[in-house]
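Input chain follows. Return structure tokens only.
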Amino acid sequence: MDMRELKALELAAKAIIVFQDGAWLVPSQSSNKTYPVTLGTPPSCPCDDFQLRQQPCKHIMAARLVRQRQGGETAPEIVADAVPKRLMYRQNWPVYNLSRSQCNG
């Protein structure tokens, strides 16, 4: 499972996603936008991720999950056996503190 799929599962579980005027209205997780998602062949979403990659984004995946939950077509298979780990980076505190003191002073 990648981060896109994980975020789609979170959206489908927590957000209010409704079908209206021929599109699934999927809210953004980072702003107050709502994306009208169509699940035809091919699916479509106006978000930057889908426009750049032309592959299903988290909004499309979430809409598919909600459609399936409501008795629509079969849900896409999302293998939930392993949650990806976020990359963690060590902070170089002496350099950070020095840069902060130079900014404030």
